[in-house]
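User: Let's play a game. I give you a shape written as tokens, and you guess the letters that built it. Ready? Here's round one.
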């Protein structure tokens, strides 16, 4: 009987030891996965107020689109956070048409509504976002001005471009060949070269595109014209601000 009792104790000790070994790795995995999960959650949200410099990938015409149609733009500048590129230029921005009204003889006014929904990152992930159009302008004629400098994710200027009016610099100190001034509002004059000037984070409204008006309500932006059909060329400059 004593031998049976001792044997039972040994078996119980072995079982308890095995159970402890099986539960330890599970606990370690759970603890290590916690911070990674939190980090992924943070990366999956675009902070409100983030300024994105972009351009249309394809032309848009109020006569040819309908609500729900997919639209695409691409970032024309890197997005920085603490001096590091977090979202590179050429990243695809996807949205859709919210409303469209074509110009006609009986109804001369025209309207085109746009909303941007997400970013399609180069590693295959999609980053949800809601961004309205803060400013828009004709496509740049000088390719050297496109993507000329990074933008900090706090809505600041390109990292080494002076702010209009003598403001300070923001971002991580990377060099930028961006112009020292930007058209800031509708009706701004074109540069001496005759082509459109590149927009910057402080630009607002429709710049250098006569007959068009821009209104934003939440994530949706509406471009209107009283007398002509709303048409946006490929490469149209966009300043987007996340909601």
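Assistant: Ready! My guess for every position:
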């Amino acid at each position: 009987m004593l031998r049976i009792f001792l044997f039972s104790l040994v078996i119980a000790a072995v079982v308890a030891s095995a159970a402890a070994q099986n539960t330890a790795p599970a606990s370690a995995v759970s603890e290590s996965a916690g911070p990674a999960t939190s980090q992924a959650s943070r990366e999956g949200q675009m902070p409100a107020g983030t300024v994105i410099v972009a351009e249309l990938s394809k032309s848009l015409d109020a006569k040819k689109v309908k609500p729900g149609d997919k639209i695409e733009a691409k970032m024309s500048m890197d997005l920085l956070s603490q001096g590091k590129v977090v979202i590179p230029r050429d990243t695809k921005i996807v949205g859709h048409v919210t409303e469209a009204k074509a110009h006609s003889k009986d109804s001369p006014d025209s309207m085109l509504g746009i909303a941007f929904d997400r970013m399609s990152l180069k590693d295959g992930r999609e980053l949800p976002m809601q961004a309205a159009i803060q400013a828009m302008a004709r496509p740049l004629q000088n390719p050297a001005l496109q993507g000329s400098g990074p933008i900090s994710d706090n809505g600041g200027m390109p990292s080494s471009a002076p702010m209009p009016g003598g403001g300070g610099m923001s971002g991580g100190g990377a060099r930028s060949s961006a112009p020292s001034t930007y058209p800031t509002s509708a009706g701004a004059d074109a540069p001496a070269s005759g082509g459109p000037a590149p927009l910057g984070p402080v630009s607002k409204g429709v710049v250098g595109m006569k007959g068009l008006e821009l209104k934003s309500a939440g994530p949706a932006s509406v471009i209107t014209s009283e007398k002509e059909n709303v048409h946006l060329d490929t490469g149209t400059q966009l300043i987007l601000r996340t909601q």
